[in-house]
């Protein structure tokens, strides 16, 4: 019986052709977002009580989108700043004994995008994610582990939203925002100069 040694090559060729076709149709890997090249390179600044795990997910997702993430603001063209994390949990359902049966876990952070001269391209935008989960008061340890896993999932959702919010920042958009900011600053300065002295 003859063995078809060309079969692996055929499979590789088919895979490559399929990949090219999917790319042409706009298909992207899960988590991949069209972040403009204009934001390269970027520094991710995690301020306040922003969890390291969330920061790492944002950095990894940016790198997945072919954005160069640098270690210091001095090396970067732009700074993505995450400011803190707020966590809240509220009961959404109760048992017959008035104990909580379901909780809504919500995480919220704020993101800003700055130029090297601290011009805000995006200022304190609120990013949030939530999930409802069941709570069993008879199995507290298992539910605590579930909540930790759920928190990691919410970090992932926050990271995806944060990176998605960067997609409009093309070079043209950035230049327009800088021009608007400088014009507003100039107008504010002129108004202060022209203001009469208080009696």
Automatic annotation (TrEMBL):
Record Pfam families: LptE
GO molecular function, one term: lipopolysaccharide binding
Subcellular location(s) of the protein: Cell outer membrane
Source organism, top-level taxon: Bacteria
A single Gene Ontology CC term: cell outer membrane
Keyword terms of this UniProt record: Cell outer membrane, Lipoprotein, Membrane, Palmitate, Signal
Keyword Signal attached: yes
Any one of the GO BP annotations: lipopolysaccharide transport
InterPro entries recorded: LPS_assembly_LptE (IPR007485)
Membrane topology: Lipid-anchor
Assigned protein family: Belongs to the LptE lipoprotein family.
Subunit structure: Component of the lipopolysaccharide transport and assembly complex. Interacts with LptD.
Function: Together with LptD, is involved in the assembly of lipopolysaccharide (LPS) at the surface of the outer membrane. Required for the proper assembly of LptD. Binds LPS and may serve as the LPS recognition site at the outer membrane.
Name the UniProt record assigns to this protein: LPS-assembly lipoprotein LptE
Originating organism: Hydrocarboniclastica marina
Top-level taxonomy: Bacteria, Pseudomonadati, Pseudomonadota, Gammaproteobacteria, Alteromonadales
Gene this protein is translated from: lptE
């Amino acid at each position: 019986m003859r063995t078809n040694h060309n079969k692996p090559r055929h499979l590789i060729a088919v895979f490559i052709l399929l990949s090219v076709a999917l790319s042409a149709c706009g298909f992207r890997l899960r988590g991949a977002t069209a972040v403009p090249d204009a934001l390269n390179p970027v520094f991710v600044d995690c301020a306040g009580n922003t969890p390291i795990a969330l920061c790492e997910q944002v950095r990894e997702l940016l790198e997945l989108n072919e954005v160069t993430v640098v270690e210091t603001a001095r090396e970067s063209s732009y700074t993505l700043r995450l400011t803190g994390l707020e966590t809240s949990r509220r009961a959404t359902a109760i048992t017959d004994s008035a104990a909580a049966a379901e909780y809504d876990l919500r995480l919220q952070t704020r993101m800003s995008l700055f130029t090297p001269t601290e011009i805000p391209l995006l200022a304190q935008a609120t990013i949030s994610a939530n999930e409802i989960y069941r709570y069993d008061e008879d199995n507290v340890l298992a539910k605590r582990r579930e909540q930790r896993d759920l928190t990691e999932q919410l970090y992932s959702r926050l990271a995806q939203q944060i990176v998605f919010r960067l997609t409009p920042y093309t070079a043209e958009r950035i230049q327009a925002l800088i021009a608007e900011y400088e014009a507003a600053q100039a107008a504010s300065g002129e108004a202060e100069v022209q203001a009469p002295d208080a009696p």
